[in-house]
Write a structure and sequence with these properties.
The protein has one domain. Helices cover 64% and strands 0% of the residues. The chain is built from three helices and no strands. Helix 1 packs across helix 2. It is elongated and about 50 Å long. The mean pLDDT is 91.
Length: 76
């Protein structure tokens, strides 16, 4: 499938710079970025679905195994 997309100049320049930093073409950068974003979105939706099915009791049981300690610096 071929899709033609008109981008605002400032976004096109950002994409061009990002592609250059990664030593890829703009097309490769756009495709990789879209693929990554869609994968993250699918994973997030799957986790939301699983979380909606979890019982509060099972979540509490899992949290029991996490040590009670102060957060690491930067994790506050």
């Amino acid at each position: 499938m071929t899709v033609t997309l008109q981008l605002p100049n400032d976004i096109a320049r950002q994409i061009e710079r990002a592609a250059q930093r990664q030593h890829v073409t703009m097309r490769q950068y756009i495709l990789t970025t879209l693929q990554d974003t869609l994968s993250y979105q699918d994973a997030f939706e799957m986790l939301q679905e699983k979380l909606s099915q979890a019982s509060p009791l099972s979540v509490d049981e899992i949290l029991r195994y996490i040590p009670d300690r102060q957060p690491l610096p930067g994790d506050e």
